[in-house]
Predict the 3D structure of the following.
Amino acid sequence: MTKPMKKIKTLCVYCGSNRGVDSRYACLARDLGTEMAARGISLVYGAGGIGLMAEVADAVLAGKGKVIGVIPEHLAQAEVKHGGLTETIVVKSMHHRKQIMFESADCFIVLPGGLGTLDEFFEILTWRQIGLHDKPVIVVDCADYWAPLQALVDQVVAQGFATPKVQSLYHKVNSVAEVFAFLEETLVRGRF
């Protein structure tokens, strides 16, 4: 039986509202949700009832975990909102959505996704860079999906638009097991 982490209570997961073409993406999302529920860790996410968003939420719910969805009014109809969450918070704007997700989370996990996922990743990373938080940001690279992202960050550093320190603002892993190993190591070191 997996023991719950002492200090990690809620993970914010950024991921696609589509499933993507590789079935491993959905498996990854389900595995993350299952492990979160087993560890007693709540999920906060964008409240979607489709794509990888639904996969991770449904897995947490199936494991009797808590899921908080945050969605702006204008997307509550446009996106397929998940109907079975523990709590759904409907807000006025995308900015408010991101702020609530930020405030609710102890850590940020980035799974495969599209432009919205990239937006959320870069914003939370920038906030860390300028000292607004020191919460872990973990990119889960399934099937080399995020290899181009890593190359982009490397290019930004190589061309002098950022220092090499930005590469330490997030941690890249390849599996759900590595997510929790990293978090446990971070807790042991007392880094947050």
